[in-house]
Automatic annotation (TrEMBL):
The gene is zapA. Homodimer. Interacts with FtsZ. PANTHER family: CELL DIVISION PROTEIN ZAPA. It is found in: Cytoplasm. This is Cell division protein ZapA. Residues 60-91 form a coiled coil. It comes from the Bacteria. It comes from Geobacillus zalihae. SUPFAM superfamilies: Cell division protein ZapA-like. Signal peptide: none annotated.
Length: 91
């Protein structure tokens, strides 16, 4: 099994520098980091008294919630598409 080469990208999230290592493209890693940074700033504006660890957890929980909702919607649409495709094969 061949392992994909790892990419190292320096990013800044909520004022902290991180080196992210992953198999994704540098552009993808930067996009993810920018998304997390934006979300942290968004939640910080709504909850200015939160310390950084609590802000990070709140951000992670909200992103996970968004992900799970999208995953459920994807599964629902995939099932709907499969049913429509199966229905057309019966014709």
């Amino acid at each position: 099994m061949t392992e994909q080469p790892k990419t190292r990208v320096s990013v800044r999230i909520y004022g902290q520098d991180y080196t992210i290592v992953g198999a994704e493209s540098p552009a993808h890693i930067r996009l993810v980091a920018a998304f997390v940074d934006d979300k942290m700033h968004e939640f910080s504006e709504k909850n200015p008294l939160l310390d950084v660890p609590k802000l990070a957890v709140l951000t992670a929980v909200n992103i996970a919630s968004e992900y799970l909702k999208l995953k459920e919607e994807y599964q629902r649409l995939a099932e709907q598409l499969k049913q429509e495709k199966d229905g057309k094969q019966d014709d």
